[in-house]
């Protein structure tokens, strides 16, 4: 017969709340107490009953996480980091794909109702008006989207994009293009603005292509359009578009970087490309951890409020950029 929490507590001479806390909030106990509880649990093959805990505490012990495109390689590191952080505190993460569709994002939030204690909403495509309609906003945190009075984690691409433009200009590039991402993307708006600002700082006017949904095929399409211009370097919204761009250029008989230099953003698939991709490195995994930490803090009586956490970026130079032809 399986041992119960109270039996385990009696054996150890501890209160049931202390034993429960060893599983849910070990940081609140001494290392020795946690070690004793976990050792006894292992001897008896005891597993804490999450469903019983949900009934007694009113918590589901679940966190919802919505991303606009689960196939985009930016999001798996974020999801993995969020799951790892949540699991360490006894929570599970339910992941949903918004399919780049504001209505589907709202549907997913509706499905989560009653099943999760809070939601991490990544790069939402919903309008600001619709985001303000989300109930229990003190249990929702945005990643890469800024809405007044809503908590958010922002990966600030400004510095990294400025570094990308400076890098290309130092290599002699004066005809630079920006390959835009999804039209509803906050990150795309920020990155395009940063490229425009820095190019104009150097007395340049960049070519603007897009907006594009982040797919390999979209990058190939951008390559066809760039091949008919005088552009010698391109900065893509993300690595997915950048890799498609490189493929399209190579299919057209153009060499990277000899004929056209390419810079990506997010730095998530760059070392597996040919040539290895110069990219603006963002903090996807860090964003996942920080977002979950903020939610967990609010569950314990803290307040996220309108907190705003900004994560920096920087350019990582590899072999997809070189001197202007």
TrEMBL record:
Q: Which GO terms describe its molecular function?
A: DNA binding
Q: Which InterPro entries match?
A: HTH_LacI (IPR000843), LacI/GalR-like_sensor (IPR046335), Lambda_DNA-bd_dom_sf (IPR010982), Peripla_BP_I (IPR028082)
Domain HTH lacI-type stretches: 3-57
Does Manganese count among this protein's keywords?
Answer: no
Specify the superkingdom. Answer: Bacteria
Enumerate the UniProt keywords alphabetically. DNA-binding, Transcription, Transcription regulation
Where is coiled-coil annotated? none
Pfam families, per database record: LacI, Peripla_BP_3
The protein, known as: LacI family DNA-binding transcriptional regulator
Native organism is Dactylosporangium salmoneum
């Amino acid at each position: 017969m399986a041992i119960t929490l109270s039996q385990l507590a009696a054996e150890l001479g501890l209160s049931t709340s202390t034993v429960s806390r060893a599983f849910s909030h070990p940081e609140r106990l001494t290392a020795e107490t946690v070690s004793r509880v976990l050792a006894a649990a292992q001897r008896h093959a005891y597993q804490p009953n999450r469903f019983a805990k949900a009934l007694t505490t009113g918590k589901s012990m679940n966190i919802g996480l919505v991303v606009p495109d689960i196939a985009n390689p930016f999001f798996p590191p974020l999801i993995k980091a969020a799951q790892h952080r949540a699991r360490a505190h006894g929570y599970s993460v339910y992941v949903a794909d918004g399919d780049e569709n504001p209505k589907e994002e709202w549907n997913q939030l509706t499905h989560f109702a009653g099943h999760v204690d809070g939601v991490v909403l990544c790069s939402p495509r919903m309008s600001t008006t619709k985001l303000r309609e989300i109930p229990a906003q003190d249990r929702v945190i945005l990643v890469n989207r800024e809405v007044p009075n809503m908590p958010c984690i922002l990966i600030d691409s400004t510095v990294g994009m400025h570094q990308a433009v400076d890098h290309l200009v130092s290599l002699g590039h004066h005809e630079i293009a920006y390959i835009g991402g999804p039209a509803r993307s906050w990150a795309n708006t920020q990155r395009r603005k940063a490229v425009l600002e820095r190019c104009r700082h150097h007395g340049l006017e960049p070519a603007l292509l897009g907006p594009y949904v982040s797919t390999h095929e979209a990058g190939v399409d951008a390559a066809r359009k760039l091949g008919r211009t005088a552009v010698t370097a391109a900065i893509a919204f993300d690595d997915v578009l950048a890799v498609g761009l490189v493929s399209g250029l190579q299919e057209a008989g153009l060499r990277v970087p000899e004929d056209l230099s390419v810079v990506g953003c997010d730095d998530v698939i760059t070392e597996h490309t040919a040539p290895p991709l110069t990219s603006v490195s963002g903090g996807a995994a860090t964003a996942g951890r920080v977002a979950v930490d903020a939610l967990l803090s609010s569950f314990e009586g803290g307040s996220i409020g309108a907190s705003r956490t900004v994560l920096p970026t920087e350019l990582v130079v590899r072999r997809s950029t070189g001197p202007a032809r």
